[in-house]
Q: What sequence folds into this?
């Protein structure tokens, strides 16, 4: 229960770092849709924090990180082919 009372600082940081790693892997070129989705989820998380909805923020931040991982993997895979 306490996890929903505090802003998801670690989850937001993880999402930002993973999105940055995806960008460094050129996801903007090789997996732009997946990267855009990750960025949109991070934006949603930020707005949820501003609204005090930490549970939603946490869910969006985790989803953003997962999407950024996909974007990075897609980008690296396409570069190898």
A:
């Amino acid at each position: 229960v306490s996890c929903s009372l505090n802003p998801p600082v670690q989850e937001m940081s993880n999402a930002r770092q993973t999105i940055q790693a995806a960008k460094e892997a050129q996801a903007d070129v090789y997996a732009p849709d997946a990267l855009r989705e990750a960025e949109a989820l991070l934006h949603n998380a930020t707005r949820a924090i501003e609204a005090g909805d930490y549970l939603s923020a946490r869910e969006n931040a985790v989803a953003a990180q997962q999407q950024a991982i996909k974007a990075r993997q897609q980008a690296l895979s396409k570069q190898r082919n």
Summary: The two ends are 46 Å apart (CA to CA). The CA atoms of residues 59 and 72 lie 20 Å apart. Residues 54-80 form the longest helix (27 residues). Helices lie at 9-24, 27-30, 32-50, 54-80.
